[in-house]
Design goal:
Shape: elongated
Strand order of the largest sheet: 11-10-9-8-12-6-13-16-15
Distance between the termini: 47 Å
Number of helices: 11
Helix content: 25-40%
Largest sheet: 9 strands, mixed
Amino acid sequence: MLKILLFFSYFYGVKIHQKYISRCIDIARNGFGTTAPNPTVGAVIVHKKKIIGEGFTSAYGGAHAEVNAINSVTDKSLLKEAILYVTLEPCSHLGKTPPCADLILKSGIKKMVVGILDPHEKVAGRGIKKLVDGGCDVTVGVLEKECREHHKRFLTFHQKKRPYIILKWAETLDGFIAPKKEDRKIDPTPFWITNSYSQQIVHQWRSKEQAILVGTNTVLEDNPKLNLRHWKGENPVRIVLDKDLKIKNNFNVLDGSTPTLVLTQIADASRYLKGIDYGIIDFRQDVAAQICEKLHKRNIISVLIEGGAQTLQTFIDAHLWDEARVFTGSKSFSKGLKAPVFSGNLTATTKIGHDTLNLYKKC
């Protein structure tokens, strides 16, 4: 009987911890698109099975989730009897803000439940050690799989030293992503393969990622703005591959309205536009790897690659991608530019009107 009671107590305790870490993940999503390169952390403070405080990471440079959660508690005297739940190990170093571990100890919190450890070289277990040394009882590894999925951008950036890479394109029923060039010359206006609802979803995705990347041909043929128009949020950093600086300043991506990085082989700075950032890469070498290195140095933790076919295929062939999001519309071209060829694990399929959205993870 005693073993049964102990097992029930343990099982019940684990379930309660999972419940509140799940809540942490839910509220952490509010930070997507604003916190990078910081992670989007969620924190919940519980006193006698009642939530008394919550918080998520503020926009970059602002307070972290733990600070916002502690500050939201009305009666601070309850903190010494409360449990702090958090998706990611609290920081222990001085950055844009003071160490969260110090504030947690100062607040009197004596018990914490943490989803996963922080891989950042300045944290990596040091936050937990500081808390334990300060007398805090810390449990680590609750809903670890879910927390890793939530923090996949941050984890990839620090563990693989590159951004989290999402490929996105739309293709016709017969596998084309654009009409043939001759048809584009007759009618240069963009031809939408997907419906307006799918287009809105893409803008929602843009709001969650730190950067968006396209190749030269996509800009020259479509003149995209690469910003948010069908969803609220902050515009991602625009990254444009332009080997020979063919794109002139009358194109939308060079209008200066949004931070923009042009990756080129041209080192002549006299050809650079004011207000645009430039980076040099060798287009004769591994382009995808060089792009990842450039973006990592600029603290860009996630990038949505929207085209064109050659750019997408470059990352696919280099095995430098994490997700692929592929729309299939209801139209056919019969001929034109073929969609990228890749192999991935299908994780979800969704119908959006007459469109189909397939989500893949890299094998």
